Amino acid sequence: MKLVVAIIKPFKLDEVREALTPLGVQGLTVTEVKGFGRQKGQTEIYRGAEYQVSFLPKFKIEVVVPDDLVDGVVEAISTSAKTGKIGDGKIFVLDVERALRIRTGEADAAAL
């Protein structure tokens, strides 16, 4: 099993979710986060004064999938979250040693 973590622009969330559903992804976790990468934030004007916003709003999506779905999930997220502009985000894939569904006690792949 793998944990796929994606940091994306907030307005791309629905597109990403819609892209993952046909692949058999049954659940995911979304967290509102703030951060910056190469774009180093942005400059905004408020009441005539210029302010540097160093942390931009992003969404972090976390989904645990079987090994055979990883490539499809990464491709679906990458394609649906892409705008072609700086700040589109990142995708990370990590190993998951164990999963457990608390309600039923199912473990590993059955718990997904």
Automatic annotation (TrEMBL):
Gene Ontology BP terms: regulation of nitrogen utilization
InterPro entries: N-reg_PII, N-reg_PII-like_a/b, N-reg_PII/ATP_PRibTrfase_C, N-reg_PII_CS, N-reg_PII_urydylation_site
Pfam families cross-referenced by the UniProt entry: P-II
Entry-annotated residues carrying O-UMP-tyrosine: Y51
Transcription regulation recorded as keyword: yes
Record's keyword terms, sorted: Nitrogen fixation, Nucleotide-binding, Phosphoprotein, Transcription, Transcription regulation
Domain of life: Bacteria
Record keyword Zinc present: no
GO cellular component annotations of the record: cytosol
GO molecular function, one term: ATP binding
Membership in a protein family: Belongs to the P(II) protein family.
Subunit-level organization: Homotrimer.
The protein's name in its UniProt record: Nitrogen regulatory protein P-II
Species this chain originates from: Rhodovarius crocodyli
